[in-house]
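Posting for a labmate who doesn't have an account.
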Amino acid sequence: MSKKSIRFFNDREVRAVWDDENNCWWFSAIDVVRAINDEPDYTKAGNYWRWLKRKLGQDGVQFVSGTHKLKIVAADGKQYNSDALSAEVLLKIAL
């Protein structure tokens, strides 16, 4: 993971990390939830993401291949393991 990027969706930042091995971008799941729901609060977006992941898991949707824990730089400048979504999984969730 060498490249890091900030993308914007609905005027919200979405952090992204490039995966050299798989040749694709991974997007912060919480940032995506914040952007789609127009949610200013990271805590509420994080809670919603955990609820959604659990709900979809109960419905038989598995994110194992499409979700990874990646170190993503947070607002405080530190890197934390965060759920990251591939573009393919992002589209499935959006639908």
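Reply:
Got it, the structure tokens are right above this. The chain has a mean pLDDT of 80.
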